[in-house]
TrEMBL record:
PROSITE patterns for this protein: HTH_TETR_2
Organism annotation: Nocardia yunnanensis
Every HTH tetR-type domain range: 1-54
Keyword terms: DNA-binding, Transcription, Transcription regulation
Protein name: TetR/AcrR family transcriptional regulator
Keyword hit for Transcription: yes
Ranges of the DNA-binding region feature: 17-36
GO MF annotation list: DNA-binding transcription factor activity; transcription cis-regulatory region binding
Amino acid sequence: MLEAAQQLFAREGLGVPLDEIARRAGVGPGTVHRHFPTKEALYLAVSIDQLEHLVCDAANLVADDDPAAVFTLLSRMMANGAENSAVKSALTAAEFDLRVVAPDVAAALTGHVSALLDRARTAALVRDDISVADVMALVAGAFAAIHHANAQTSPARATHLASVILDGLRPRS
């Protein structure tokens, strides 16, 4: 259900009826309504699911030896934000903060970002004055930039904006 919801929200926006999500997921409408009594509950579940996927990706990158892996993860995070901007906007409007409603998942992601950032800093791939708080703020800012540029439906434009932001992490020449 979450995968069907995420795909439909990304492609068709937040106005997708829960019954259509049920149909695409191959379940009855009652099943969706029983698990997600409101559309906001479904938005939240989709966002937490996406965050959990990012945590898995981050853990795999931490296990790898690539000193530039922080850029890979941050690019994925920004792409995910672009793809799911409608859901993120709905959560903001509903005053949901994923750091509050899913603190363990958010903390795990931040911990992995911190480990990857430290590795990149040691390899002189990231400026010394960049903190994990800076990086997380930049990712959040990237979501706003992508939305402002109306680049949610243009992966090339969203990728360009993300690369401009990520370039700011690199050491000055």
